[in-house]
Design goal:
heterotetramer, A alpha/beta, B mainly alpha, C alpha/beta, D mainly alpha, C: alpha/beta, Rossmann fold, 2 domains, six-stranded parallel beta sheet, D: mainly alpha, ABC transporter involved in vitamin B12 uptake, BtuC, two-stranded antiparallel sheet, globular
Chain lengths: 245, 322, 402, 297
């Protein structure tokens, strides 16, 4: 896979709810094996952007394409099968299932047939996030941090080319955050999966990501290296304009 | 199921299967009691598939039960299947597996036709309301179906061959066992994984590659199929298929009740629920014939107040769902 | 997973207990004759069920007062015991009720419940267990195709039954004959059965219906129907519906100021409740029935008096139920046993004299015809018009001229 | 085929249909509150209406209380009974994630009430006959029923009172907020149990008011209520779940649909068509026919 190959491309994406424009004219390109941070104040439209990419919402205008193929508005499960996996801000695991069964869903259905040996893939994914010991534990009994790990394992098991992480650190303590950073690094290093990472904790993004995109009030106001972004005037205004986070 | 309980299950089923050979058994009351338990257990499994495992509360089971029953009766009365053989072999439809399966298929087909629009548009309570409306519409259509459905009177099937309950008992038992085994196999398969995923979290399921509509419609259709076959079996017992008897709301409410009392989303819950609830209803009917529904109503309320998770989960905290 | 074990064992225990219970209830056969009846004790038909139960109880008491039934096999007169089971007014539950009567209560023979579809369900179960099931209130077209051996029926054909109003009209002076009659029947089995018969009868007698509409059971608003009837200038109505629906229809007719000279009701108009719910507005209404206390037959008047003494109203049904029990008792005596085949032979093709519905002549299919009755409500009493009534039909004036 | 009838017949149809439909409407308002807060399809609503009707009848024949006057007794009693029903039967179940539990309690309650009524009053049709039973009045030049017009007034004023309560009182606002989002109500510092209990109390008192309308207009039997429950559900869906005035409007619309179908097509199809409209609305306009356009934030 070449480094400059574009996986995901958003062109002039706009999303409106009633009279409220939540995303306006967003252009984003994600290349192979990139780790991109997506930040912005509350209400900037980050989660909506994820929901547009994964077709939970159809964009009001604009186009989403993946590997050159138009995927705007196709069913969410087909997007997953094409190779875009995601996690959720409010963690969404299958609570009555065991950890292993959760991951199997990704390996069987999310992979859309790409994974030949689902059981092995699921085992490996649990191993990667360090949950092997909790393999047969019911998700309902797991800690938040473990459930966040489990979501990532489930996504990894579906053998995606692109992983959308929606605030994977929300609600975690510092030790758990460090564990999460390690896992994210490892996923990228071992699997070469591109990631688009929405995060409230800007410092973590700045440390780990090679590129950062900033949204504010539905507009993309910056897109560059962490250093470029921190010096961007609009970004500083956007963050200063918000009560101290 | 662990090995010893598997053996226990086999022994119990074998004992039940041999019961009709016991002298006097066929004429004993518990024989027809067990037949009804089997029938209701099948209906409860049907509801459990779509609502317990699938998480979609359907209030339309009676419509599918009735469709299966009517299919059987119409094939019978209209001479549609094996037509030329019918005159010389009037019993040809009696427990004919093709007729019974067709009953299931017609119900399943209706479930797909109504399930596609309903399930793609409606969630949760709205789906429940939609299925309730669907049931009422089906009933009115059959009442107005003219000669084809026998109108409001319905269809009387020839009953001359019916002189023992034995075949009903065996077919009922077989259906109950087959349904339980089929659902057990299903829930251990990849489809079962998808069904539970959709029940637990529909959005996460679709974000993980599950075609949620397909899974839900399939569960709805599977549930309808089981109900349709049960309706077909009932036709061989009642012989008169009319809108008031086979589209009776009881065919939805009682199985629902039995499943919840036994334990939704468990394999044996529906069977246990059917046994216990039918026993309570029947005892009340025998002991206090003048006001037994009062007792039944009280039992349901008490069961829900004190055992809201159902017998299976209340007595075995560890009981697995899938 | 020990629950599966416990559950199944509990189930087995429970069911064997039920079975045992069944055997314990079984009486020592030979000292008495146990007659079972599924009756609508609960559910929407519980009102009818109460009348039926009363009539059966009266008949059994009368039989026992006369010493019981002479049974040749026992060589003596045996007393009769009546056992009833609730069918919950539901076709589906009749079968369970009969399983209970036959297997738990060990009845020797059966009397029917009320209404066609329920009796069909009952007759089929009785056939299976070879217990004789004596029926009244089911249409022969529902029952005859089954060709059952162990049940017999007396009732009227919807055909001749539906001709009653036309026969009454035929005798009216020309200016009173309806010009725009209407047919309104509920979409129930009996309603449909009757509806078709009315249409056929109308053709036969040269009438055509200006409005011919089914109504949905339990509908609460008939104003649209009434508007329709008014628009069609209807002057006679044949109404088949439940008591509640018919009362609602009539109240709304009055509210909307619409009246017809001839209104003849089936099923919903004969009960005492109909009169109670309408008061004087029930005057002039013609109603069906299976029986009349003014029949000249043996015991009819006495039964009617007894009913009136107990309930302070008259009945046009209890006689049919009473006669049902009379026929069964006489048949058992003729047969000399309660064996279903023997009772069959004692009824099929035989005649039964002096029941409270008159003489019953059963044909080779086991069916005997009784006439449908037509009475007119007058001051809270049923006045017999058909057959051979001594009451002259009074056309109803407009509401404000009564 | 029927040609378009003259306007006075259309007016007659519409007026009477609307008056009849208002009774479904008032039942639907109660259902709407209970459904809105507890997400419970309270199938026993119809049985409660009939219970109220029997109560009205007992007051009339036993104590000579005029049925319309008995509103003053039935409505407060309904409030209390509703509160008790919630506290006794549904409080625990409301906390269960499995909402089948509440649904089944409602079904159990329906069985219980129906059959208790049969045991106490018998299964026969019962009615209340007063001096104004079956009397008609002229409205807009059209003849219509007096008791139905009264029923319509009861429905209107009942719904109006509920609206006032929901709009003007803090507790009412909490109930309203809860039917959109229970968490929002909790944030307002009002416990879900209180909100649910209030919804139940109002729901049952409305059933009481509907019971007065039923008792004065129809003969009834213990089993007559179920059809009311179903029709009220249809009205509820037409009006939009959680929308109180919508529920009343939905009931009136249902009454109109039934009247037109009965007149122009046939009485045999009224139910199928009513339920067909119900399904279509659920599918294509699940927020109901009378809701304002969707607005976020």
């Amino acid at each position: 896979m070449q480094a400059d190959e574009t996986l995901l491309r958003l062109e002039a994406v706009k999303k409106r709810f009633g009279g409220l424009v939540v995303l306006n004219n967003i252009d984003i390109a994600v290349g192979a094996n990139e780790l991109i941070g997506l930040i912005g104040p509350n209400g900037a439209g980050k989660s909506t952007l994820f929901n547009v990419i994964t077709a939970i919402y159809a964009p009001t205008e604009g186009r989403v394409s993946f590997r050159g193929k138009d995927i705007t508005g196709i069913a969410p499960h087909r997007i997953s099968r094409l190779g875009i996996a995601r996690t959720f801000q409010l963690v969404r695991t299958f609570l009555t299932m065991t950890a292993f069964e959760n991951v199997m869903v990704g390996a069987v259905y999310g992979a859309g047939g790409r994974v030949k040996h689902a059981t092995e893939a699921a085992t490996a994914a649990l191993e990667l996030v360090g949950l092997s010991a909790r393999r047969d534990m019911r998700t309902a009994h797991m800690t938040l941090s473990d459930r966040r790990m489990l979501e990532i394992a489930r996504a990894v098991a579906s053998d995606p080319a692109l992983l959308l992480l929606d605030e994977p650190m929300a609600g975690l303590n510092p030790t758990e955050i460090q564990r999460m950073v390690d896992v994210i690094r490892r996923v990228r290093a071992d699997r070469g999966i591109s990631m688009l990472w929405v995060e409230h904790k800007v410092d973590a993004i700045m440390k780990v990501c090679s590129r950062v995109i900033v949204l504010d009030h539905g507009e993309k106001i910056a897109d560059g290296t962490p250093r470029d972004v921190t010096q961007n005037r609009k970004v500083i205004e956007a963050y200063l304009g918000e009560p101290a986070a | 199921m662990s090995r010893p309980s598997q053996w226990i299950a086999i022994v119990v089923v074998a004992a039940l299967a041999l019961l009709p050979f016991l002298p006097g058994a066929v004429d004993a009351y518990y024989f027809s009691f067990l037949f009804f338990v089997f029938l209701y257990a099948v209906m409860a499994q049907s509801w459990n598939l779509v609502a317990g495992y699938g998480g979609q509360i359907s209030l339309g089971s009676h419509a599918f039960f009735g469709l299966g029953a009517y299919t059987t009766a119409i094939l019978w009365s209209g001479n549609y299947l094996w037509g030329s053989l019918y005159d010389s072999h009037p019993n040809i439809y009696y427990f004919d597996p093709v007729t019974m399966l067709l009953g299931g298929f017609v119900a399943a087909l209706a479930a797909v036709l109504i399930g596609l629009p309903l399930l793609s548009k409606l969630h949760g309570d709205y789906f429940a309301l939609g299925t309730l409306g669907f049931g009422e519409i089906v009933k009115v259509i059959f009442v107005n179906g003219g000669d084809f459905t026998g109108g409001a009177f319905g269809i009387v099937a020839p009953a001359s061959s019916f002189d023992t309950l034995r075949p009903h008992y065996w077919v009922g038992l077989g259906l109950m066992v087959a349904t339980a085994l089929a659902i057990r196999a299903l829930m251990r398969s990849r489809y079962g994984l998808a069904l539970i995923a959709v029940r637990d979290d529909e959005m996460a399921a679709s974000a993980n590659g599950i075609d949620t509509l397909k899974v839900k419609v399939a569960a709805f259709a599977g549930s309808a199929f089981i109900a349709g076959v049960a309706g077909s079996l009932y036709t061989f017992y009642i012989f008169h298929v009319g809108p008031d008897s086979v589209f009776d709301l009881d065919w939805m409410l009682l199985p629902l009740m039995m499943t919840v009392v036994g334990g939704t989303g468990t394999l044996l819950g529906p069977i246990l629920g059917a046994l216990v609830m039918y026993a309570v209803f029947d005892l009340a009917r025998i002991v206090v014939p003048d006001y037994h529904p009062v007792i039944s109503g009280l039992t349901i309320i008490l069961a829900m107040l004190f055992l809201p998770k159902g017998l299976m989960r209340s007595f075995v905290g560890k009981a697995r769902t899938a | 997973m020990e629950i599966s074990l416990k559950g199944m064992l509990a189930g087995l225990l429970l069911s064997s207990a039920l079975g045992l219970g069944g055997t314990l209830v079984a009486n020592a056969a030979g000292d008495e004759i146990v007659i079972g009846a599924p009756i609508s004790l609960t559910g929407p038909l519980a009102g009818d069920g109460k009348e039926q139960k009363w009539a059966y109880e009266q008949a059994v008491a009368d039989i026992n007062k006369a010493g019981g039934i002479m049974v040749k096999a026992a060589g003596k007169k045996l007393p009769v015991r009546l056992v009833v089971a609730d069918d919950e007014s539901s076709e589906g539950k009749v079968a369970s009720a009969l399983e209970n009567l036959i297997k738990v209560q060990k009845v020797d023979a059966l009397l029917s419940t009320h209404s066609g579809p329920m009796n069909i369900a009952g007759a089929i179960v009785a056939e299976k267990y070879k217990k004789f099931y004596m029926i009244t209130t089911a249409f022969p077209f529902e029952w005859q195709p089954l060709k059952l051996k162990y049940s017999a029926l007396f009732f009227f054909h919807p055909g001749p039954g539906a001709e009653v109003p036309f026969q009454i009209w035929d005798k009216l002076p020309a200016n009173e004959k309806p010009k725009h009659p209407a047919l309104v029947s509920e979409d129930s089995p009996d309603g449909k059965g009757f509806g078709g018969a009315f249409e056929a009868a109308a053709k036969k007698y040269g009438y055509s219906f200006a409005v011919d509409d089914p109504w949905a059971i339990g509908a609460t608003d008939y104003s649209a129907l009434i508007t329709k009837l008014k628009a069609a200038d209807v002057d006679a109505m044949l109404v088949f519906g439940s008591p509640a629906d018919t009362v609602t229809l009539l109240r709304q007719m009055k509210e909307l100021g619409f009246s017809v000279p001839y209104l003849h009701g089936w099923k919903g108009t004969w009960t005492g409740e109909f009169h109670e719910a309408l008061g004087p507005d029930s005057d002039y209404i013609l109603t069906d029935g299976f029986w009349s206390a003014s029949y000249p037959y043996k015991g009819a008047k006495e039964l009617g008096d007894r009913y009136e003494a107990e309930f302070k109203k008259d009945s046009v049904t209890v006689g049919a139920f009473y006669a049902n029990a009379q026929v069964l008792a006489q048949a058992i005596e003729k047969a000399g046993s309660t064996d279903a085949a023997a009772i069959h032979d004692a009824i099929f093709g035989q005649e039964f004299k002096d029941t409270v519905v008159g003489d019953l002549k059963f044909d080779d299919t086991g069916f005997a015809l009784i006439p449908s009755v037509a009475t007119q409500w007058w001051q809270g009493k049923h006045q017999l018009i058909y057959p051979d009534g001594n009451w002259t039909y009074k056309p109803a004036p407009a509401w404000d001229k009564r | 085929m029927v040609n378009l009838p003259p306007p006075e017949i259309l007016l007659q149809l519409s007026l009477n249909g609307a008056l009849g439909g208002a009774m479904y409407g008032v039942a639907a308002v109660g259902l709407s509150l209970i459904f809105g807060t507890m997400r419970l399809i309270f199938l026993a609503q119809g049985a409660m209406i009939i219970l109220a009707a029997y109560f009205v009848r007992a007051l009339f024949y036993g104590l000579g209380v005029d049925p319309f006057l008995s509103l003053l007794i039935v409505v407060p009693v309904g409030l209390g009974v509703g509160w008790l029903i919630y506290q006794g039967l549904f409080r625990q179940a409301a906390a269960e994630a499995d909402r089948n539990v509440s649904l089944l309690i409602a079904v159990g309650l329906m069985f219980l009430v129906q059959n208790l009524m049969t045991v106490i009053w018998g299964g026969n049709t019962a009615g209340v006959v007063t001096s104004y039973t079956a009397s008609g009045i002229e409205l807009f030049g059209v003849r219509t029923s007096f008791t139905r017009s009264m029923g319509f007034l009861i429905a209107l004023s009942g719904t109006g009172l509920v609206m006032l309560f929901l709009r003007k009182t803090i507790v009412g606002k909490a109930v309203r907020a809860a039917s959109e989002d229970m968490d929002a109500a909790t944030l307002m510092g009002i416990s879900p149990h209180r909100v649910n209990a209030i919804a139940f109390a109002i729901g049952i008192s409305l059933a009481g008011a509907a019971g007065v309308a039923v008792a004065t207009t129809f003969p009834f039997n213990p089993f007559a209520g179920f059809i009311f429950s179903l029709k009220a559900l249809v009205a509820l869906a037409l009006g939009g779940i959680g929308n109180v005035t919508g529920a009343l409007a939905g009931g009136i619309l249902l009454g109109l649909i039934e009247a037109y179908v009965q007149f122009f097509i046939s009485g045999g199809w009224t139910n199928a068509i009513a339920y067909g409209v119900f399904l279509l609305v659920l599918m294509f306009k699940p927020e109901g026919l009378f809701s304002r356009p969707y607005k976020k934030a």
